[in-house]
């Protein structure tokens, strides 16, 4: 583990207001000074994934570097109700667009990194492939481990197969496969197969960590899904794996309605265990709507990446060339300005 990410970002709450309409780019008007929030919860604590230790007020954002269109020229009458929302989202994006600290000051994602999600089917596998591809492009030796692959009787490609195809990672290991599409412990029981043993999984991950710069471990479903049994006979979860390994965690989240609650619950569960965590959106829609922009405004301080919807269907060559653009430099990508990203993504 390295230093905490930079403090100094701040959060401005999102008001309930209709979207700005009929604008280019991300359609967001010029930011207005945000309200300061003093609450500390996982979606609002920006200083890092650990429980906050300082009560110092957050720093004011730096002024924007480039001139922006005057608000009044960009607003129509129909937009007025959306002004507060749009301004706050834009302010948040602007705050995240401040020059990044030097690499040595950033949190570095290397060693063992666990990839969980707010739910199943949120894009963990595609995100893991993107993280692997970006790290490989940066010259890192990467391994991917899927401890428990379930649903092998469905005929769908396994997560390891998807990651190998998309990222071309040489070392992609699945530690146990179970036929039924259930949580790994349930799938093991139903099939009468040995459940995953926590110590075995830890040993397998550490073995690869000795040979690689980055070991990505993809969970099954969400954070607290029963993965297997400890030697004591107690079930263990992906959260237990994170604390046992002392590993950092990427939380893959949806962009749409419901994601704030699911993401907050997952981050809170990780924070209270002292686990450093950051968020990646698994599939940012090609045509984002109000809910996506509003969610982005809340989540972006926690985010270290966002994949476009459709990334999983890309030609592998295109996927590998594109992946660094979806991830921040701390994750070996080149996404260093959320405001620019929003202009392009919207
Ligand atoms: N960015 C994306 N582009 C295209 N397809 C995507 C994207 N993200 C997810 N998908 C698709 O959504 C489905 C679920 O994604 P994925 O398999 O990565 O989920 P998961 O979180 O890994 O689920 P699981 O818990 O089963 O491992 C897959 O069919 C995948 O192809
Ligand atoms: Mg998966």
UniProtKB/TrEMBL annotation:
Record EC number: 6.3.3.3
Gene3D superfamilies for this protein: P-loop containing nucleotide triphosphate hydrolases
Binding residue positions for ATP: 121-126, 159, 218-221
Residue sites binding Mg(2+) per the record: 125, 159, 218
Active-site residue numbers: 146
Record-linked CDD domains: DTBS
Region forming the signal peptide: none
Location within or outside the cell: Cytoplasm
Cofactor: Mg(2+)
Keywords: ATP-binding, Biotin biosynthesis, Cytoplasm, Ligase, Magnesium, Metal-binding, Nucleotide-binding
Pfam families, A to Z: AAA_26
SUPFAM superfamilies for this protein: P-loop containing nucleoside triphosphate hydrolases (SSF52540)
Biased composition (Basic and acidic residues): 63-73
Gene Ontology terms, MF aspect: ATP binding; dethiobiotin synthase activity; magnesium ion binding
Catalytic reactions on record: (7R,8S)-7,8-diammoniononanoate + CO2 + ATP = (4R,5S)-dethiobiotin + ADP + phosphate + 3 H(+)
Domain of life from the UniProt record: Bacteria
NCBIfam families: bioD
Quaternary organization: Homodimer.
PANTHER family, sorted: DETHIOBIOTIN SYNTHETASE
Function statement: Catalyzes a mechanistically unusual reaction, the ATP-dependent insertion of CO2 between the N7 and N8 nitrogen atoms of 7,8-diaminopelargonic acid (DAPA, also called 7,8-diammoniononanoate) to form a ureido ring.
Name of the protein this chain belongs to: ATP-dependent dethiobiotin synthetase BioD
Name of the gene: bioD
């Amino acid at each position: 583990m390295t230093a905490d990410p930079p403090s100094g970002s701040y959060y401005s709450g999102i008001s309930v207001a209709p979207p700005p309409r009929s604008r280019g780019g991300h359609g967001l008007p010029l930011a207005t000074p945000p309200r300061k929030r003093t609450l500390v919860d996982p979606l609002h604590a920006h200083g890092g994934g650990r429980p906050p230790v300082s009560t110092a007020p957050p720093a004011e954002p730096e002024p924007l570097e480039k001139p922006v269109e005057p608000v009044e020229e960009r607003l129509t009458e129909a937009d007025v109700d959306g002004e507060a929302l749009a301004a706050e989202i834009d302010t948040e994006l602007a705050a995240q667009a401040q020059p990044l600290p030097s690499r040595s000051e950033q949190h570095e994602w290397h060693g063992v990194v666990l990839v969980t999600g707010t739910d199943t089917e949120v894009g963990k596998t595609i995100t893991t492939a993107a993280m692997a591809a970006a790290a490989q492009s940066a010259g890192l030796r990467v391994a991917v481990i899927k401890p428990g692959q379930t649903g092998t009787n469905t005929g769908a490609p396994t997560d390891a197969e998807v990651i190998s195809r998309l990222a071309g990672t040489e070392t992609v290991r699945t530690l146990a496969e179970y036929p039924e599409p259930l949580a790994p412990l349930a799938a093991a029981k139903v099939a009468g197969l040995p459940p995953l043993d926590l110590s075995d999984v830890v040993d397998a991950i550490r073995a690869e960590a000795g040979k690689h710069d980055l070991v990505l471990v993809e969970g099954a479903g969400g954070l607290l899904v029963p993965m297997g049994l400890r030697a004591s006979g107690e079930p263990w979860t992906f959260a237990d794996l994170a604390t046992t390994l002392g590993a950092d965690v990427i939380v893959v989240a949806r962009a749409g309605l419901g994601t704030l609650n699911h993401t907050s619950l997952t981050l809170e569960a990780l924070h209270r265990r002292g686990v450093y965590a950051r968020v990646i959106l698994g599939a940012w829609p090609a045509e984002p709507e109000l809910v996506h922009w509003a969610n982005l405004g809340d989540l972006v301080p926690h985010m270290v990446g966002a994949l476009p919807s459709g990334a999983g269907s890309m030609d592998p060559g295109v996927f590998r060339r594109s992946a660094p653009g979806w991830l921040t430099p701390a994750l070996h990508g080149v996404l260093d300005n959320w405001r620019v990203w929003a202009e392009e993504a919207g």
